[in-house]
């Protein structure tokens, strides 16, 4: 699968339905076949990047 942000394939699994893109440093979780995209802030909190992508772009493509 490809990162919806950078289209890279350097995605590591960090948990159940939970992934991390080592290329652009965003966190991805999967809900109902659609990526939920989060950015990890410097203070460790998560901010949603879902607004930057259409649902079509966030749909899982294996
Ligand atoms: Zn990426």
User: Ligands in the structure?
Assistant: zinc ion
Name the strands of the widest sheet in spatial order. 1-2-3-4-5
Mean pLDDT: 92
- H and E order: EEEEEH
Q: Helix segment count?
A: 1
The coarse silhouette is globular
Secondary structural class: mainly beta
Taking Cα atoms only, what radius of gyration do you get, to the nearest Å? 11 Å
**Major sheet summary line:** 5 strands, antiparallel
Distance between the termini: 4 Å
How many runs of DSSP E, i.e. beta strands?
A: 5
Uncertain residue ranges? none
Strand proportion, as a percent range, falls in 35-45%
Classify the helix fraction into a percent range. under 10%
Layout of secondary structure:
Layout: E1 11-15, E2 18-21, E3 26-31, E4 34-40, E5 46-48, H1 55-58
Antiparallel strand pairs: 1-2, 2-3, 3-4, 4-5
Bound molecules: zinc ion.
Task: Give a written overview of the molecule.
This is DUF2797 domain-containing protein. There is one protein chain. The chain has 62 residues and is mainly β. The chain has one helix spanning 55-58; strands spanning 11-15, 18-21, 26-31, 34-40, 46-48. The protein has a domain at 1-39. Helix content is 6%, strand content 40%. The relative contact order is 0.22. The mean pLDDT is 92. Bound molecules: zinc ion. Residues 3, 5-6, 8, 21, 23-24, 26 line the site of zinc ion.
């Amino acid at each position: 699968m490809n990162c919806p942000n950078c289209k890279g394939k350097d995605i590591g699994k960090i948990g159940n339905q939970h992934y991390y893109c080592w290329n652009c440093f965003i966190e991805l979780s999967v809900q109902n076949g659609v990526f939920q995209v989060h950015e990890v802030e410097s203070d460790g909190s998560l901010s949603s990047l879902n607004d930057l992508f259409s649902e079509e772009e966030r749909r899982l493509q294996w």
